[in-house]
Amino acid sequence: MSDGTLEYFRSVGALTGEDACAVSWAHAVNSRSELARALTGHCHMIEADVILRGRDPREPVMAHPPDTDSDVTLSEWLHEVKEHRKGIKLDFKSLEALAPSLALLEPVLSEKARPVWINADILTGPGGRATPIKAESFLSATADLPPHAVLSLGWTTGWTAGAENPGYSWDMVQEMERICRDLQHAVTFPVRAALLGQSLPQLCWLLQQSDRFSLTVWTSTQDQFSLQDLQSYRSRLHVSKIYIDLPDSLRAELMGTAAHSE
């Protein structure tokens, strides 16, 4: 199944064209106030983190570890989002919250066009120290999602200022391709912007293995990277295959650079 994210936003008049860089993001929407801001703002996709509450009642809530609770549950969060034309990306750091969350997602997933991305780091990547979610268990739990759902499957990574930071190796991308080869869903690979300059042949190869594959570029607060590295990918791959989950000013600069180079 191909990724219908861009088609959805075109169909509701939220964007035109085929450039995935035009999709804008709201991050860490893990509270009632952040959710209200995102729903009334201009973003297309709302990203949030899901954990199982650290006390009774043990239910999925919107929070990023080490937080163990939130002022909004996943059920409440989805009820609000359902009334707006926004796509959602839910990030899971452990398996315990996944099954109860997927059950709560069923009414949203029944809307056959709305973008729903389910994200987890399933492999160890460059500089990665965090333990990834077990790939087999995650993919088994998500296998019965509707065809239009998108799996966002990444690597744990690290980056250190002033150090030689390795990129995504051939072994890393080949293992990811092997895992994703026979999946029925569209897959986007979240990749760290600061590591892209060292990874161009590997990641371009990965995307060339299936029409179902795309990249989603992200960054951490302290990371340093060159927009030219990102532009190299946009010149090698179709722009519909590279989502840019970066601040609006950087996305605009990238799109402006592309326009001037045409």
From TrEMBL:
Pfam families: Menorin_N. InterPro entries: Menorin_dom (IPR019356). Residues 19-251 form the Menorin-like domain. It comes from the Eukaryota. One of its GO terms (cellular component) is extracellular space. Belongs to the menorin family. This is Family with sequence similarity 151 member B. It comes from Oryzias melastigma.
